Amino acid sequence: MKPLPPPTAEPTAQPADKARLAPWYQLVALLLSRAVGVRWSVWLLLAAWFVWPLLVNPYQLGSAHDATYFLHHASAAYRSWTQYGQLPVWNPFFCGGIPALGNLQESSISPSMLLPVLFGLMPGLQLALVLWFAVGLEGAWLYARKWGATRASAVVAALGFAFSGRFAMLFLDGQPAFVGFLLAPWVLLGFEYGIVKPWAAVGGGVALCLVLLEGGAVATPMLVVLLGWLVLIHVLARLLWWPQIGWRWRTAWWPLRSLAILGTVAMLLSAVRLGPVAESVVRWPREWLGESSFTFPQVWAMLTEASQDGGYEGPGTAYVGVWLFGAGLWGMLRRPYRAWPLALMIVLTLGLAMGHQRPWAPWNLTTKLPVLHNLRCPFRITFFTALFAATAAAVSLGALQRDLRDGLGWLLRARRPGAGQWRAVAAWGLCGALALGAAGSLGRKTASFSRLRVATQGLEPSPRWTDQPFRQSLGNRWEAHVWPALGLGSIGCFEEQPYPTSRGVRADLAAEEYLADAAAGTVQRLSWSPHRIELRVHTSRPARLRINQNWHRGWRSSAGVVRNDGGVVAIDLPAGRRTLVVEHRDPLVWGGLAISWATLAFLLVLAAGQGWRWRQQQIDAGRS
Amino acid sequence: MSELPAAPAHIALPIRWQLASLLLPLAVFAGLAWRVSSRPPPPRLEAAADAQDRRFGLSLQRRQEIFFDISGHDAQWKLAASRFEDEWSRHDDYHVHLARHVAVLAARHNLASEAVFLIYDEGVHRQWTDATHPPLEPTWAPLQPRKQ
């Protein structure tokens, strides 16, 4: 057995070393630490373990009120996709008809909607949750690796972030749209790598786009707030002189460049949704006049107190565990350039989570900005506190692992020829196993606590489905999920934005399409779908046809003139007999769709080009 | 400087191995998908009336009784909701009462709550009234999100 060569600063420059390592060791090392597929399998199984009650009972949903709201929107989109083969732009099943794509809280065109389409609504939604959590675990793992954690120690970042208390609240509060926060590490990876390698910011933009598509009414603006503060910190840091680094003021604009690329990609890629959302936010702003503030002990209790009774924003609702915070201390001593910035992020997010505590509080300053003044529930920033705390713990544990390995190396005198490799392998394996054990043990505390909360959430059956001709019903906002399942509209509803709705939409009509002057003719429905209604109309004189839905500028008619009749869709028709097609077509959506597809195609071509170049470099390196 | 090689960083898994390893999570996900989608969905609700105008196994008269049970509480629920100042909370409170009462009626008559909601909808559409039960107002006030 040949001895290992001495370690070098550039180990990748020695491909010949591969042959000197025992094949079994290569195989084990590769499979456990380097094979992406093995890692993803572990994440998937962990995610399934976390949401197991929902996988066992896929046709149940959480008993929290908001769960019915989100299931309503998913059901309406599901009907639109599967029953009518239409892009869910308009939701006729709620409030008498409101925008679907323009609703910030909708996830009707998120890629995750593909799973309900393939596997059925409820099984698909549960499987999407598993995927989102696996994505969050991988993202946090990669983020910790980016900050210098080892492969083993980064596991604590994955568990500590993705299974932190706020993600358990996603089930207890019935707000599945908050899975968007699981993409936070991906957005941050894109931004932070993008500072030096601008192309990486494209990846961050894709992640931010996915957050918005997933109904990120909260996650998107909060991520934007975090990115804004990060840019500020990065720019300031580059304007200062640092020991061992020196001056970097010439590169102070790089963080801004990264944010600009990230933001541009996110906006272009999500144009299909961004246009309608921007219109709805401007025309019907989500107004929030309340202020909320929390003391530091309150926020600290959210993060560290293992309480099952915290309610909406009380102790334990963002549980990470005091041990995870404590674990970060070693890294602050041993890896100051890694751990101190993370500590600063923790302090910043804690400050933001305290809300309107003081006039100069960061949240107060943030909500002074024009677009962000309606942000509420600052305690949700603790999603990010959990990420930074878990990452700091991973960095710290990684530092400990390396220190331990160094100590063992000194003890074993591994450089001695003849026996070095086996001792090196043993020491590396032992330290890795210890670090993995410690990471698992630390992460398990957080994960077990949150999983218990998920497991003890109340479940109730999802509604039974039926098909019947669509009509508006008085409905019920507390059982919002029932109505699209029944194929009826619920006039009674709840939304965060004041979409224009009309008293003219009624639940007692004999027909949903009717002439204002019944004596002027007859109307017969030939077909109905959320975005296209076909009617046979016979009018003996000019007459007004009403559709029992709210007016929107997207309504079009194959004949006559579309009117806003007291908030209801109406069409002024000349006399005659005709087949009338009334459609909901929003130019903002179709224009946005063209931009989104073009951007996606452009990015795919670029990615293919990059992949080709990378492959050529690999081949060239192999030849040389 | 470490005495030992930190990790064999120069070892890179060949790309074909990387791709092959992706089969593993696909298999795991397929297993989960099979586990979840193999569960039978709840039976569909038969909402249409039969030749004797019976729905959900209930005669017209029984359905009217259930509807009047709901509409008879309308004034009471509105009065209870009037303790709130803003429209949003009044609306919300009314719907809580309605949803809870529908659950009670579903249990009492051994029906799915969706069936009770359909009876509620039928009564509003067919404008069922009698001497003691005036018709329900067939619409709601325009959407007013809460601000506090």
Concise account of the structure shown:
The complex is a heterodimer of chains A (624) and B (148). With 624 residues, chain A is α+β, with helices and mostly antiparallel strands.
Low confidence ranges of chain A: 1-21
The secondary-structure class of chain A comes to alpha+beta
* Poorly predicted parts of chain B: 1-10
| Percentage beta strand of chain A | 5-15%
Query: Distance between the terminal alpha carbons of chain A, to the nearest Å?
Result: 27 Å
What is the distance, rounded to the nearest whole angstrom, between the alpha carbons of the first and last residues of chain B? 59 Å
Comma- or semicolon-separated keywords:
heterodimer, A: about 625 residues, Immunoglobulin-like, four-stranded antiparallel sheet, 14 strands, disordered N terminus, B: mainly alpha, 6 helices
Model description:
The complex is a heterodimer of chains A (624) and B (148). Chain A has helices spanning 23-34, 36-50, 52-56, 65-83, 114-119, 121-146, 154-162, 165-172, 184-196, 198-213, 219-239, 254-269, 271-283, 296-304, 322-327, 329-334, 336-353, 362-366, 382-412, 420-455, 482-486, 587-623, and strands spanning 60-62, 90-91, 98-99, 459-461, 472-473, 489-490, 513-515, 521-529, 532-539, 543-550, 555-557, 561-565, 568-573, 576-584. With 624 residues, chain A is α+β, with helices and mostly antiparallel strands. Chain A has three domains: 38-81 and 104-459, no CATH class; 513-585, Immunoglobulin-like (Sandwich); 586-624. Chain A has a four-stranded antiparallel sheet, with no helix packed on it. In chain A, helix 9 (184-196) runs antiparallel to helix 10 and helix 10 packs across helix 12 (254-269). The longest helix of chain A has 37 residues, at 587-623. Chain B has 148 residues and is mainly alpha-helical. Helix content of chain B is 52%, strand content 0%. In chain B, helix 3 (60-71) packs across helix 6 (113-125), helix 4 (74-81) runs antiparallel to helix 5 (87-108) and helix 5 (87-108) packs across helix 6 (113-125). Chain B is elongated.
